[in-house]
Design goal:
single chain; 2 domains; ten-stranded antiparallel sheet; five-stranded antiparallel sheet; 16% helix; YidC_periplasmic_sf; chaperone; Membr_insert_YidC_N
Length: 316
C-alpha cells in the first residue's frame, strides 16, 4: 500500500473513532456556570426593582401635591421640629440648661441633616394598596404639643398624630382605614433615624432591638454592607449613643414582629425599621396603632414604663 492510501486510511480511521466516541462515550454538555446563574438572577431582580420603581412613580404622580409644612413641638425638656415631608421629625433640641450650646441653642443630638425620623410606611410585599415612598401628607392639626397629618387616596386613608406628653416622652398614633370596596391587607412599618456623623471610639452609636427575652445591638460598621434583623415579638427599638437615645415602644396590643437595623441611603444615619404583623381590614374598617416615642438622655430602663395603650380595630 502506497503512502497516499495509508494516509487516507488513517484519516478515515480517525474520523470513525471520533464519531463513535461522540455517539457513545462523550460526556454531557456542562451545566450553565454558576456565574451565569448569578447574572440571570441579578437581571431578574433588576427587572423587578425597575417595575417596583415604575409603580412608585405612578403612585407618586397620582398623589396630590401638598406644600411642605413645618412646625415645632415643645415641652419643658424637649423641642421637636416636625414636618409633613417624608417623615415626621426633622430635628431635635434639648432644652435643659445642661445641653445649651455657646450659640444659645439646645443640643440637636439626632443631627439628621436632611434625613427624617418617624417615617410611616408599608411593606409593599404584604400590602394590597400602593403607598408612595414620599406621600403627600396633608397637615390636619397642630398645637404646642401635637402635630397631625393625613394621606388619602381611593384605596386607603392613613393618619399620623404625634403628641409630646411630658419630658422627653410622647406618643405616635397611626390610623389606617380601608376606603376600597374590597377586603384589604397591609403591613405597617415605622423607620427611625440617628446621625452617625459624630461617632468615634469614645462615642459609639448603636441600633438596638429588644425582644421579650433579650436584645441585640448593631453598630454602623455591623450594618455597612447589609442590615441586621431581629425577628420575634419586639418590645422596643432604640438608636443610641453614649449619652442620648431615640426609641420607639409599641403598645402591648401592637404586634411588632421584626426589627431591622441599617443605614440611610446616603450613609449618614443609622436606622431602625419596625414591621408590625399584617392586618386585614374589611371594606370601611379601620385599625389604630399606638407607639410610645422617646427623644432624650440615655435612660433605656424607662422604656418599659413608657409603653402606651392602646391599638384598636373599628368600623368607620
Amino acid at each position: 500500500m502506497d503512502l497516499q492510501r495509508r494516509t487516507l486510511l488513517a484519516i478515515v480511521s480517525c474520523v470513525l473513532i471520533w464519531l463513535v466516541y461522540e455517539r457513545f462515550f462523550a460526556p454531557p454538555l456542562p451545566e450553565p456556570q454558576a456565574q451565569q446563574q448569578v447574572e440571570a438572577k441579578k437581571t431578574e431582580a433588576d427587572a423587578k426593582a425597575a417595575e417596583e420603581r415604575a409603580e412608585e412613580r405612578k403612585a407618586a404622580a397620582a398623589a396630590p401635591k401638598v406644600p411642605v409644612a413645618e412646625h415645632r413641638l415643645k415641652t419643658d425638656l424637649l423641642a421637636l421640629d416636625v414636618t409633613n415631608h417624608r417623615g415626621l421629625v426633622r430635628g431635635t433640641e434639648l432644652l435643659s440648661k445642661h445641653f445649651i450650646n455657646p450659640d444659645g441653642k439646645g443640643e440637636d443630638f439626632l443631627k439628621l441633616d436632611g434625613n427624617r425620623s418617624l417615617v410611616i410606611g408599608f411593606d409593599g410585599s404584604e400590602t394590597d394598596f400602593k403607598f408612595p415612598r414620599d406621600p403627600a401628607w396633608e397637615p390636619t392639626g397642630q398645637s404646642d404639643t401635637q402635630w397631625a397629618v393625613a394621606f388619602k387616596n381611593g384605596d386607603v386613608e392613613v393618619k399620623g398624630t404625634l403628641d409630646l406628653t411630658t419630658g422627653y416622652e410622647g406618643t405616635l398614633t397611626v390610623d389606617v382605614a380601608n376606603r376600597s370596596a374590597e377586603t384589604q391587607q397591609h403591613r405597617l412599618t415605622l423607620l427611625s433615624a440617628y446621625s452617625i456623623g459624630g461617632e468615634n471610639s469614645y462615642d459609639i452609636h448603636r441600633g438596638v432591638c429588644a425582644t421579650a427575652d433579650d436584645w441585640e445591638a448593631y453598630t454602623p460598621s455591623d450594618v455597612k454592607d447589609s442590615s441586621g434583623e431581629v425577628r420575634g415579638r419586639i418590645r422596643w427599638a432604640a438608636l443610641d449613643s453614649k449619652y442620648f437615645a431615640s426609641a420607639v415602644v409599641p403598645a402591648p396590643e401592637v404586634a411588632v414582629q421584626a426589627c431591622r437595623v441599617g443605614q440611610s441611603s446616603d450613609g449618614k444615619a443609622l436606622t431602625t425599621t419596625l414591621a408590625v404583623e399584617p392586618v386585614t381590614l374589611a371594606a370601611g374598617e379601620s385599625h389604630q396603632y399606638v407607639f410610645g416615642v422617646y427623644f432624650g438622655t440615655k435612660e433605656l430602663e424607662r422604656l418599659e414604663k413608657s409603653r402606651p395603650s392602646r391599638a384598636s380595630t373599628s368600623r368607620t
